Amino acid sequence: MAIRVLLVDDQPLLRTGFRMILEAEQDLAVVGEAGDGLQALDQVRALQPDVVLMDIRMPRMDGVEATRQITGPDRNGPAKVLVLTTFDLDEYVVEALRAGASGFLLKDAPADELVQAIRVVAGGEAMLAPSITRRLLDKYAGHLPSGEEPLPDTLHTLTDREVEVLKLVARGLSNAEIAADLFVSETTVKTHVGHVLTKLGLRDRVQAAVYAYESGLVRPGAQ
Question: Which residues does this entry mark as bearing 4-aspartylphosphate (predicted)?
């Protein structure tokens, strides 16, 4: 079955461009459009999309609040949210990730990256491009822990190897890349990632990456 996509952006021209790109793919189907967050909530309830391509800055209700309601505990459906941001990186993207978005993508990303990102998010993974992640977190370095604060107690529930995996997830590495870095199998990495998410009460890799930075385990600019 095709992946059902809802386009949410207050610029009709952008929605048209995204629709043309996505409808050229056999496994993707654009089921609707919305020009603001309130419309997006109505469309999610009515159309039950698999992925919502969500702009951030919109009238009436912005993408952060819409994401929070779509992915929150009272959610009505399976929709995952993929946030769109400008080249300069929107100041609300971190809030959107905290609100439950499964990743973010630049608005001027190549068509093949947009298509792949939707497939990744629809498959239950997080779209966490390393280069964008580093730029985003470096931009907000002043608002994140300096590394001098004590680490939260929850981190002590992780094994040393799980901490290693969490650090690599925060750098935006895929399971395959983590496996190569640690000289283990991808299956082992998936198991470690699952344990990290369960122990820390996190939903996905995006929340894990944000947690790693906010807790001070990883610092912006660090390798």
Answer: 55
